[in-house]
């Protein structure tokens, strides 16, 4: 499934402080580098178009030609180009797997986005235990290590024929992958805490990293098992019976075509309805498209503001080492992504509840948390980081299947890539301009380049609370609009196209 792919955009907090100190940047300049990170990571319009024209593995190859040459570019442009690799192989993996498993879209999104969310914790363990807390070594690994990994794995990402009906073996494989990811996430969180509290020898550190790699690669057991022990489908039909069925279907389709011609339906081009395949232009003129975009923009933009400024938030609230803070955010981000995928899949099938309801809940909770952060209550930092991580993960994960259900999978790559633009735009407005400006203004009052105290981000948190409040209202409207659509799509507990569809 490509769940073990590396994601180099979420480790910016690991080396952001080193960049700030080395280059003498203020916080606004540093957050603009974070924006470059988000732009490169999320601008996937070109990969979204390419994925319909070329095989998925070619997207992996394209990203390496960019990544290897980042040293030749200026720092901001280098971050844009380097993290744009995420858009290339992220699009290839996500689009391919959504098409391979169209009956389990929420589960697929939760698993893939969950591994992306936990990647920051993977890099944190690697950074602490194998690279000696060296930002330069981490950047060298990103420059050389990731292209090698991608080149080794790219041919395994390919389209396959989706299973018809509810395939029990597919369900078992999903459960195994979810369990493996949960074990990995817990291991990463515990390892990070232990390494922060207890000095570890080099030998023990390398052993812990090796165990992490084993957990990370454990989903590969599924294709190995399927290759060594292939299972013959239970509903296998003899060749003679298959031929008879084919002729019957062909006669039926010929009759339908003749009837359609007689009624003049073939000559008339009908606009797609929600649940069918939209082109990008057709989706752009839909109110639901822009409602989803704005809701995602407001919620994800608020979450990424916290992520980009996490190190400085920790220092402002009195932490000397923010490594655990990043590990907590990463773990909870993973929980939100994986959990919302599975939970939304359950309720959309059993109760036809729109997935956007969980986006509403996430933004409402973020309103409360941002207000509590602004009030600087004792002990709020780690709790708030954890909760925002969960909500950020929910917003990211739920958007994926929602877009595919409303506008189809045929042009899913380009449509979802456009939706993802809410991340860098939100980062630019809320992180680069708002948070950076407020932080530097407060630092100037204190007569230092480093701001200390809750006032460093108080105004930012209050504004983000208002932004998430608006996002809550819009997501409620969106959920009400989509309820009849989901009742149509998931009537009887299984996904099907509208009856009037021409598919």
TrEMBL record:
Residue intervals of the Nodulin-like domain: 8-224
Primary location class: membrane
Signal sequence residues: none
SUPFAM superfamilies: MFS general substrate transporter (SSF103473)
Record InterPro entries: MFS_trans_sf (IPR036259), NFD4_C (IPR056555), Nodulin-like (IPR010658)
Domain NFD4 C-terminal: start-end pairs: 284-486
CC per GO annotation: membrane
Lipid bilayer topology: Multi-pass membrane protein
Pfam families membership: NFD4_C, Nodulin-like
Chain segments annotated as transmembrane: 66-89, 110-132, 138-157, 169-194, 206-224, 290-311, 323-344, 356-375, 381-403, 415-439, 459-480
Residue ranges that the Swiss-Prot or TrEMBL entry lists as coiled coil: none
Keyword field: Membrane, Transmembrane, Transmembrane helix
Subcellular location: Membrane
Protein's name in the database: Uncharacterized protein
Organism: Hevea brasiliensis (Para rubber tree)
């Amino acid at each position: 499934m490509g769940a073990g792919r590396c994601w180099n955009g979420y480790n910016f907090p690991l080396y952001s402080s080193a960049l700030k100190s080395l280059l003498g940047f203020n916080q606004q300049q540093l957050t603009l580098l974070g924006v470059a990170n988000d732009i490169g990571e999320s601008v996937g319009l070109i990969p979204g178009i390419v994925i319909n024209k070329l095989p998925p593995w070619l997207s992996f190859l394209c990203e390496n030609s960019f990544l290897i040459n980042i040293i030749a570019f200026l720092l901001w442009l280098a971050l844009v180009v380097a993290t744009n690799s995420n858009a290339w192989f992220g699009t290839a993996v996500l689009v391919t797997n959504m098409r391979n498993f169209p009956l389990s879209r929420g589960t697929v999104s939760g698993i893939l986005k969950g591994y992306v969310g936990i990647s920051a914790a993977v890099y944190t363990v690697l950074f602490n235990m194998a690279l000696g807390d060296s930002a330069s070594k981490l950047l060298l690994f990103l420059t050389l290590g990731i292209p090698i990994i991608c080149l080794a794995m790219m041919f395994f990402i390919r389209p396959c024929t989706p299973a018809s009906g509810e395939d029990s073996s597919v369900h078992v494989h999903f459960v195994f992958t979810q369990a493996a990811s949960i074990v990995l996430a817990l291991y990463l969180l515990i390892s990070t805490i232990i390494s922060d509290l207890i000095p570890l020898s080099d030998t023990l550190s390398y052993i812990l990293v090796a165990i992490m790699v084993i957990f990370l690669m454990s989903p590969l057991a599924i294709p190995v098992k399927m290759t060594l022990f292939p299972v013959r489908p239970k509903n296998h039909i003899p060749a003679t019976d298959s031929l008879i069925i084919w002729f019957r279907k062909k006669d039926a389709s010929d009759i339908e075509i003749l009837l359609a011609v007689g009624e003049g339906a073939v000559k008339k081009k009908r606009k797609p309805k929600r649940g069918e395949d939209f082109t990008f232009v057709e989706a752009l003129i839909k109110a639901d498209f822009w409602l989803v975009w704005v809701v995602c923009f407001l919620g994800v933009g608020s979450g990424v503001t916290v992520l980009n400024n996490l190190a400085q938030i920790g220092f402002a609230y009195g932490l000397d080492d923010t490594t655990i803070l990043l590990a907590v955010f990463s773990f909870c981000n993973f929980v939100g992504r994986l959990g919302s995928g599975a939970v939304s899949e359950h309720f959309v099938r059993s109760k036809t509840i729109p997935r956007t309801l969980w986006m509403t809940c996430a933004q409402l909770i973020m309103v409360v948390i941002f207000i509590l952060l602004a009030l600087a209550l004792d002990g709020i930092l780690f709790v708030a980081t954890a909760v925002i991580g969960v909500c950020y993960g929910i917003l990211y994960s739920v958007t994926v299947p929602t877009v595919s259900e409303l506008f189809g999978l045929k042009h899913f790559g380009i449509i979802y890539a456009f939706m993802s633009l809410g991340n860098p735009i939100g980062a630019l407005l809320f992180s680069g301009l708002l948070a950076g400006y407020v932080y530097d203004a407060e630092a100037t009052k204190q007569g230092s380049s480093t701001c200390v105290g809750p006032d460093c981000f108080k105004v930012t948190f209050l504004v983000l609370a208002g932004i998430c409040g608006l996002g809550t209202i819009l997501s409620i409207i969106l959920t009400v609009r989509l309820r009849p659509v989901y009742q149509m799509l998931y009537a009887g507990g299984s996904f099907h196209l509208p009856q009037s569809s021409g598919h």
